[in-house]
Amino acid sequence: MQRLSLIFIILILSLSIKCQIIYLDSNKSITDKESAVYYRDLSEKEGKLTDSYFYMNGQPHEIIELQSLVPYVKDGKYRLYYVSGELNYEIDYKDGAIDGYMIGYYKTGQILRKDLYKNNIFSIGNCYTNNGHDTSYFPHLVPPEFNYRGNTNFREFIQNNLKYPPIAAENGITGSVLVEFVVDTSGYITETRVKRTTNSIFNGSAVSAIRKSPRWKPAFRDGQKVKQSIVVPVYYYLK
Questions:
Q1: In this predicted structure, what is the pLDDT of residue 45?
Q2: What is the three-state SS of the chain?
Q3: How many CB atoms lie within 10 A of CB 64?
């Protein structure tokens, strides 16, 4: 059965929300219960919207308080949990922006960091060891970095390694493909998939060009290497 888009589901649920459960795969795309990694519970209580994600065993993953569902505006507390169930992050939102504290926790419950924001702008912060002592400040998230022989422009790398499908070139077909991939903790590109395309004739070529990428510098979250997904457009045009 063809999957319904998550945006379409949100639009439907925004019209009447009481308690709606949606099943999601590892990429948080709509799926059936048997294939699900998470389930999503959209609920409204006393005029307050809550968007909650749970693992299939009922353990919380994300709990998000909202001002509105469409447009999607965070307002209130955002909570992220470790797979084992402990609170990982708690963030204050106001009108869709981080406004207040972003507090990170070790699995022990000890505070890892406490950053103060005003309307999405960082003001001041402190980081702590797992014993509660002050330590040198480090950013919450450092994105993955592409650098190939001094070239940091990944889109340029893609275009230089892109092969135009002959049948598309012969027929004057142009278009674009939106590709998502993951940079793993070793800097390798994995989990490449097409998110959107104007013509499936370009899909294989776009994915192939991205997979030719050399290793990246991986992302860091709270000083630790983490996987991070990236979405890039690949364009096909005739000169």
A1: 82
A2: CCCCCHHHHHHHHHHCCCEEEEEECCCCCECCHHHCCEEEEEEEECCEEEEEEEECCCCEEEEEEEEECCCCEEEEEEEEECCCCCEEEEEEEECCEEEEEEEEECCCCCEEEEEEEECCEEEEEEEECCCCCEECCCCCEECCECCECCECCHHHHHHHCCCCCHHHHHCCCCEEEEEEEEECCCCCEEEEEEEEECCHHHHHHHHHHHHCCCCCECEEECCEEECEEEEEEEEECCC
A3: 20
Question: Which of 26, 11, 27 has its CA nearest to residue 195?
Answer: 27
> What span, in angstroms and rounded, lies between the C-alpha atoms of 217 and 47?
44
pTM of the model: 0.75
Inter-CA distances, 176 with 75, 153, 205, Å? 35, 18, 11
- CATH for the stretch 154-236: 3.30.2420.10
CB atoms within 10 A of CB 206: 26
Q: What ranges do the domains of the chain cover?
A: 6-138, 154-236
Q: What amino acid occupies position 237? A: Y
Q: How far, in Å, CA of 80 to CA of 62, rounded?
A: 5
- Assign residue 222 a region: left if phi > 0, alpha if psi is -120 to 50, beta otherwise? left
pLDDT digits (tens, 9 = 90+) for 218-233: 999 999 999 999 999 9
